Amino acid sequence: MRYLPVVLITLIASSLLPARAQPPVATLSENAKRYFSIEQHDMESTRQLQYRIFIATPRDIAAQEKRPVLYVLDANAQFPLAVNSYTPAQGPAPVIVGIGYRIDQGYDIPARTRDYTPPAPTPDPDFGAGGEAELFYQFIQHSVKPWVETQAPVNPQQQTLAGHSFGGLFVLYTLFNHGESFQRYLAASPSIWWGDGVVIPKRSPLLTAQPT
């Protein structure tokens, strides 16, 4: 799918901003509104954590057709960039799902630190605010994905997970620990320094399950 490299370039460009910067949130373009039906939904996890799910469904989906689905992290900032980057020249559009937070800014720094990072191997105050990547993964698998499948005609055999910085770290965490959950992974500038590189498995081969 030619669209995915465009998304990766967009994520890399946005990841060059300082980690704690709060750049203006992009607005959805008129072209994006022309090609997609766009909605958002507030969702609560089983632990009463608050999320905002964005979904863009291509308007040209034919009856009984199922499209690939792209899941984008840091969605408050990244979802509009991903949707705006689509043009028909890139081929049929996927369903685009953004997983974000109930905020007006682009990034919820404490929440993304909590959700996107694996536990550090030893107690360290630099890593004490994170470590809940597995719980966030379970939320995506058991809450977000089932809901998306009721809202849009997605192909569960053509799923992509994309993120940058801490989001890229979570993409790698999912690839190394739950590689069968998605078929493609886009990790832009992943923060592999977190936990002194704890995300990289100490095993060979790195993948115990190939993306299906």
Question: How would you portray this structure in words?
Answer:
This protein has 212 residues and is α/β, with parallel strands linked by helices. The protein has one domain: Rossmann fold, CATH 3.40.50.1820. It is 32% helix and 22% strand. The protein contains six helices and six strands. It has a six-stranded mixed sheet with strand order 1-2-4-3-5-6, with helices on both faces. Strand 5, helix 6 and strand 6 form a beta-alpha-beta unit. Helix 4 packs parallel to helix 6. The two termini are 16 Å apart. About 2% of the residues have low confidence.
Blueprint of the fold:
Layout: H1 3-15, H2 30-35, E1 36-44, E2 50-58, E3 67-72, H3 75-84, E4 95-100, H4 109-116, H5 133-151, E5 154-164, H6 166-177, E6 184-188
Parallel strand pairs: 3-4, 3-5, 5-6
Antiparallel strand pairs: 1-2, 2-4
Helix pairs in contact: 4-6
